[in-house]
Specification:
Elements: H1 3-16, H2 19-35, H3 44-56
Helix pairs in contact: 2-3
Length: 57
């Protein structure tokens, strides 16, 4: 398989997910990017739970 096919296969669950799930994924990825610089990111689990609660309400 070529690289493009592999990427497509990996992204398929995200691309076919409902809008709410895509929003959660995008916001969690952004949160992780923001915390990358930290030696030991704190409260990331709490932040993820907060994102999920905000989206499902």
């Amino acid at each position: 398989m070529n690289e493009e096919a592999n990427l497509s296969k990996v992204q398929e669950p995200i691309n076919t997910a409902p809008p709410e799930i895509r929003e959660i994924i995008e916001r969690v990825l952004q949160l992780e990017k923001e915390k990358l610089y930290q030696r030991s990111p704190r409260n990331i689990n709490d932040d993820i739970v907060k994102i999920v609660k905000e989206v499902i309400q």
